[in-house]
Design goal:
The complex is a heterodimer of chains A (252) and B (34).
Chain A: E1 7-11, H1 23-29, E2 34-40, H2 52-57, E3 65-69, H3 76-81, H4 100-104, H5 107-110, H6 145-163, H7 165-183, E4 189-191, E5 206-208, H8 213-224, E6 247-251
Parallel strand pairs in A: 2-3
Antiparallel strand pairs in A: 1-6, 2-6, 4-5
Chain B: H1 9-33
Classes of the chains: A alpha+beta (252), B mainly alpha (34).
Chain lengths: 252, 34
């Protein structure tokens, strides 16, 4: 939107070592015509938890809408983020979430089978556009892909409510502490983000000297049976300028 | 790595032991090479 000239935005710098933003810097970036303050609450890369409560308390920010992004697939970052975002409303799930696949199971589609494109056949890439899925396997799958996610979300929310957020937080805190104790002072091993249990969730990006992310992931999987996500996010960690930064946006 | 509520402290300890072992073996190999 900024590129199209619809808005102006200010990217607020973060503290390089931790990825934390100073609420005061956010306050300074707010102008009378500010409409939105967007902050990633819990980073699913470094585990950094931004001080959203302090940012929200800023008098200037109360005049603006503001939001924080959260992972939505049940990552620990999402669950832990819930501990301080008590003002978040539960998601409302409606039947409007029906997916094209539901409509694609009509019998008429059977007679007009399009070959799947060479690329993206297995993962349904290219079927994201609105309308019926055009090629297998999606076109013959009954119901909606979203239905699985919706059912999972409902079960997850019920489970969290039963366990209580406080209890889950205590357990996660215990795990974070265990992890930090286990990797601290190991030669050649570092983890990014806040160095301690404060301002973080149970998501860790680690580096072992001498290995790139993919090499480390292969060793962890093949030797220890530990699955990780070796996304090449190392170059996007907070100390680099392309890390997600809080944005203060205004209409032009 | 990320933790969910279904993991135990033993699970996390297993992961940190693995990481420490990898790092120490790599470090030892580097020292030997020198």
């Amino acid at each position: 939107m900024a590129e199209r000239g619809w808005i102006e935005q200010t990217r607020v710098p973060i503290e390089p070592g931790t990825g934390l933003v100073d609420p005061e810097d956010i306050r300074k970036a707010i102008r009378p015509d500010t409409k939105l303050i967007a902050v990633t609450h819990a980073s699913n890369v470094t585990g950094t938890v931004q001080p959203v409560r302090e940012i929200g308390r800023s008098r200037a920010s109360t005049a603006s809408r503001w939001s924080w992004t959260r992972p939505i697939r049940g990552t620990s970052a999402d669950r832990r983020a819930g501990r301080t975002s008590s003002t978040c409303s539960p998601l409302r799930v409606t039947r409007d979430c029906s997916a094209p696949a539901a409509r694609a199971s009509s019998t008429s589609a059977r007679h007009r089978e399009d070959p799947a494109p060479a690329q993206g056949r297995r993962h349904g890439i290219g079927q994201r556009a609105a309308g019926p899925a055009r090629f297998p396997p999606d076109k013959y799958e009954p119901g909606s892909h979203n239905a699985i996610g919706i059912a999972g979300l409902a079960a997850g929310v019920a489970w969290v409510a039963e366990q209580t957020v406080e209890k889950l937080y205590e357990h996660d805190l215990d795990l974070v502490r265990t992890f930090i104790d286990g990797v601290s002072d190991v030669e050649g091993l570092i983890y990014h983000g806040p160095q301690g249990v404060r301002h973080r969730v149970g998501v860790f990006s680690v580096q072992v000297s001498g290995y790139d992310a993919h090499e480390l992931a292969v060793i962890l999987e093949t030797t220890y049976g530990i699955l990780t996500r070796p996304a090449s996010t190392a170059h996007r960690l907070p100390m680099r300028r392309s890390a997600p930064q809080p944005v203060v946006a205004r209409h032009v | 790595l990320s933790f969910g509520p279904f993991l135990s402290k033993q699970d996390v300890k297993y992961a940190t032991d693995a990481l420490a072992e990898i790092a120490m073996m790599r470090h030892a190999a580097a020292v030997t090479k020198r």
